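[Q] Does anyone have a clean C-alpha cell version of this?
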Amino acid sequence: MTIQATFPIPAAFAITMAILKRAFDLLVSTLVILSVLSWFLPLLALMIRRDSPGPVFFVQKRVGKDGKLFRCFKLRSMVVNPHADQHPVAGDDGRITPLGSWLRLSHLDELPQFFNVFLGSMSLVGPRPYMPADCRRFATIIPDQAFREKVKPGITGMAQAKGLHGIVCDRNTLLQRYQWDAWYVDNKSFGLDIRILWTTFLNLLPLQRPAAAPGSPSAPSDHISVLHLEKRKAPVHYLRDRK
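[A] Here you go.
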C-alpha cells in the first residue's frame, strides 16, 4: 500500500508562498547587487571617505525574525560616535554629515541592505527592523511588539508605502507604523509585496501625485512630507482588535 503524504491546504499554501518570496528576494537582490551596487557602491564609498573620516559602512545590530539579532548594513551617514546604538537620529542631529543628509533623504544609505536580503536576514518587504534600544523605548507605547517578529524585516514595508518612514516625530506616527505592520503580518501575500514595492518606487520619484485614499491598504501614498497624518491612518484600533 502506498502512503502519500499530504499537507493541509493552508499549510501547503503558506509553504509555497514562503518559497516564492525567498526566490523573489534572491532574484531581485542578486540583480541589484550585480547590476547596480557593483559600480555604484564604490562611487558612494569614495564620496563618504572624502566627506568625513571613518568607515564607509555602518553595521548595527537590529531585531529580526523570531527576535533574533542580526547585523544590518547601511552606508555611514553620521560622524563616528559612541551613541549610535542608543540614541536614534533626531531632526536637527549634528551627528549627520553633509553627505549623510543627502544619503538619508534619498534613502541611498539603505542600499547595502540588499546584501542582508541576499544573505537571508532580511526580505525586500516586511516591517522595518529596529535596534534593540528602540524596541525597549517603543515598548512604553506598544507593549506587545512580538507580532512584528513573525516575519523577516524588510527594506520597505506597508508602513513605508503609506508614507510612514523617516524619523519618528510623535506618538501617533509610531502607532500608525505599528498598526500597518500588524496589518501586513496578518494579510501578507506575494501580490501585496509587489504592490508595496511598486508604491515604494513611486514614492521615491520626485513627482507630485494625488493623495492616497484614507485607510486603503492597496492605494498608493504620497511622500511623507506632503501626506497628512489623517490620510495615513491604519484600520481603526487594529492593534487592539487583533489581540
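[Q] Thanks! Anything notable?
[A] The two ends are 46 Å apart (CA to CA).
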